Amino acid sequence: MKKILLAEDDIDFSEVLIQYLQLHNFNVVCAENGNKALEIFKNEPFDICILDVMMPEMDGFTLAEELLKINPDTRFIFLTAKQLKEDRIKGLQLGADDYVVKPFEAEELILRINNILKRSETNLSNPETDKILIGNYVFDTKRMYLKIGAKTQQLTEKEATLILFLFNNKNQIIKRETILNAIWNNNDYFSGRSMDVFITKIRKYFQDDSRITIESKRFIGLEFKINE
């Protein structure tokens, strides 16, 4: 059974959601505020976290930042009653796998959770090798790090997945929607903003080898170039 941490301060709503998740074979641990959720997370492993944005003591965004400090590969979904564009962008910039606005159909949430977990299990499958040479970098797809000389950059799962996808399509223009559908599983505006944040980070990771660039092709997509 996959294990879920649910951080939700609405007791009635959380009870209904817990029952529905349990009916779909999820093991759910619930916390009524951010501080309690953080303490639980420190002592138990979870496959995914569902975080309400508006909670007392610690909001969902702050909680997500703290969870990522403990485990950078944490998978999480935000729940919110707000539909503000700024909130969705902030959530996705933090690395959220999804963002669900209340009210929503419970079945929709189940589908989103299953899609995220499925991607998590399959995105980094590479039967040929765990280590790939990218210019002067060694990219370890299993341990998820980039190394150049004595410098090692630990990666999140999504960063590693994105780098692997770009490398497998190197030296060719890749349409934005192709990248978004492959890594984010959709190509809406908010996922596009999230992708831009990740691309900025990855450019910095490769800045010690001038032969490697990620070029933006306006209105088309990106090109991960490796000049030999």
Written account of the structure:
- The chain is α/β, with parallel strands linked by helices and 228 residues long.
- Helix content is 43%, strand content 25%.
- The protein contains 8 helices and 12 strands.
- It has helices at residues 11-23, 34-43, 60-70, 85-93, 106-122, 157-168, 176-183, 189-205, and strands at 2-7, 26-31, 48-52, 76-80, 98-101, 131-134, 137-140, 145-148, 151-154, 173-175, 212-217, 221-226.
- The strands form 3 sheets. Strands 2-1-3-4-5 form a 5-stranded parallel β-sheet, with helices on both faces. Strands 6-7-8-9 form a 4-stranded antiparallel β-sheet, with no helix packed on it. The chain has a 3-stranded antiparallel β-sheet with strand order 10-12-11.
- Strand 4 (76-80), helix 4 and strand 5 (98-101) form a beta-alpha-beta unit.
- Helix 2 runs parallel beside helix 3 and helix 4 (85-93) packs parallel to helix 8 (189-205).
- The longest helix is centred in the middle third of the chain and has 17 residues, at 106-122.
- The relative contact order is 0.10.
- The model has no long low-confidence stretch (mean pLDDT 87).
Short account of what is shown:
By secondary structure, this protein is α/β, with parallel strands linked by helices.
